[in-house]
Fold this sequence. Notes:
The protein contains two helices and two strands. It has about 130 residues and is mainly alpha-helical. Strand 1 and strand 2 form a beta hairpin. The protein starts with a helix and ends in a 22-residue tail after the last strand. The model is unreliable at about 125-130 (pLDDT under 50).
Amino acid sequence: MIDFIWNLFQDSDIQRLRAEAERREQLSSSLQAQAGSTEARLLELERRHEQLKLVTLSLWRLLKDKVDLSDAELEKYVASTDLLDGLADGAVDLSKELIKCRQCDRLHLNTAVVCPFCGARGSSPNAFDTT
Length: 131
């Protein structure tokens, strides 16, 4: 009789542990999927960052060649642009310039022609918008 009760207890414990193992496996799979999408997003942001660096350098070279601006003048413009939000902190807070995309509801700059997240066109309101 004691063996029977012991076996029932063991069976119950085994079922509980199997359920816990399955739950943890599902959680692990979910976390791996999130990590994969985060890694892909990081790679995309790094690619876009490199493109921005290339464009910025190209524009600066163009200004130097065509308008004969100096590095000191560039530094002056960078400093004055940094102060657009009232803080000399090496960044510009453009949160006042953000709007919500009509399609994905994410925030982006109001000057964007398309939403950088979902690609929706016309997410910025303009004077010719009839909706």
